[in-house]
Amino acid sequence: MKERRRTKRRELLLFLPVYDLDNDEPLGHLADITPGGIMLFSQKCIELGKKYAMQIRIEDLRNALIYKEAEGKSETLKFVARSRWIAINPDLYRTGFMFIDISPEAQGTVEHIIHNLDNML
Description:
It is built from 2 helices and 6 strands. The chain is α+β, with helices and mostly antiparallel strands.
């Protein structure tokens, strides 16, 4: 498949949970991140084309050493994203999401994570 991505994908070597805000259950684990979206690994199939309100807990990012901002900011990274594609492996689903509603503060957190990941490599 031809790559249509405009920005470099940052892959994570850690599985950070991403929660569905509707039920506070893990939707999957963060596999990579770009300024425009994320990819999740999950054990259940995620509905294609659906909007999901999601959150990543800042404490999880701090524990993974990819978030180093000062205390006092929001304790969660919240956003709405739409599932755009799904790839199925025998025991795992990979789902790509595009951000469709993300606050400037949350977008800044995404940029901060990407910057820290770039500096780790």
